[in-house]
Amino acid sequence: LSVHINNILAGSVLYQSLSQLDYKFEFMEFVKSINLELSKEKSLYLKGRLMTINHLQLHMSDIEKEHALNLAKITKPVKDEIKTYMDEICKEYSLLAHVNYKFDSNLFVIDTTKRAIKDRLRYLTGIDNFIFSSYSTVNLTAI
């Protein structure tokens, strides 16, 4: 039965169309947005901070997996650093909680109500890492 269903789907024009879509970009086109113009310097600075936060979040996840028992003590310095960077970019760029932002080719949301610091910056494009085009002029967009 599963082979028969697979054969029907594989021959379907709709299935072929859907399997060729790049869902990340389709999703980003679907979401309405308002552009915030940033200078190249501020754009590169924000990009660096977001990449640092992302790196620290991934690093903290690795630490959590390795040291589940001593978790709080080991991750405190990383959590403090994430919090510092989050506070800094929220203040510098007037980013609001619960607003979806489009930055370069990524969507993210800041949720300051999350208890876990590492969950306060979330990516809506289904990726674990920010993907940035190198040194392109970047707009930060509130959605």
Short description:
Helices cover 52% and strands 13% of the residues.
Structure in words:
Keywords: Plasmid. It comes from Borrelia miyamotoi. This is DUF244 domain-containing protein. It is a single chain. The chain is of the alpha+beta class and 143 residues long. It has 2 domains: 1-30, no CATH class; 34-142. The chain has helices spanning 2-11, 13-19, 23-30, 40-66, 71-92, and strands at 34-36, 100-103, 106-110, 121-123, 140-142. Strands 1-5-2-3-4 form a 5-stranded antiparallel beta sheet, with helices on one face. β2 (100-103) and β3 form a beta hairpin.
- Beta content comes to 5-15%
- Provide the low-confidence segments as ranges: none
Termini distance?
Answer: 44 Å
Number of E-type strands: 5
Order of strands across the main sheet: 1-5-2-3-4
Protein name: DUF244 domain-containing protein
Organism: Borrelia miyamotoi
InterPro entries: DUF244
Pfam families: DUF244 (PF03112)
Using brief descriptors, characterize the structure shown.
alpha+beta; five-stranded antiparallel beta sheet; 5 strands; 52% helix; DUF244; DUF244 domain-containing protein; plasmid
Please write out the topology:
Elements: H1 2-11, H2 13-19, H3 23-30, E1 34-36, H4 40-66, H5 71-92, E2 100-103, E3 106-110, E4 121-123, E5 140-142
Antiparallel strand pairs: 1-5, 2-3, 2-5, 3-4
Helix pairs in contact: 4-5
Protein name: DUF244 domain-containing protein
InterPro entries: DUF244 (IPR004335)
Keywords: Plasmid
